[in-house]
Amino acid sequence: MKTLSRLALALVLTGAAAGAASAHAKLVSADPKAGGVAKGQPSSIDLNFSEEVSDKLSGAEVKDAAGKALPSSTMLDKSSKSMMVMFKAPLAAGSYKVDWRAVASDDGHKTTGTYNFTVK
Predict the structure, then answer these.
(1) Does domain 25-119 have CATH number 3.40.50.2000?
(2) Of 3, 6, 79, 105, which is least packed with CB atoms within 10 Å of its CB?
(3) What is the rounded distance in angstroms from the CA atom of residue 91 to the CA atom of residue 43?
(4) How many CB atoms lie within 10 A of CB 85?
């Protein structure tokens, strides 16, 4: 009986550790999307994550084709899963790179990523 109890406890602990290890805020969608084309002159982009992210520790930087960071500010929506990056001036036609970082609110795990989009 002791062996069965130990086995059950080991399975519970393993499952708990696996659940905690997979709890990272991942980028699930963006507008404009990765590799996408935005029409007009966007004044913001939207990043949507798989879980709530920390407002103070998460953010994004958008760079033009020359690698220059564009002046912007970020804001999370009420769910804390969607981040809006608002530009000081609308984006002109060209290529852009988004570098984002997300720190999960519940466990502090940090994830980062990069994607590109074009404005026509």
Answers:
(1) no
(2) 3
(3) 6
(4) 22
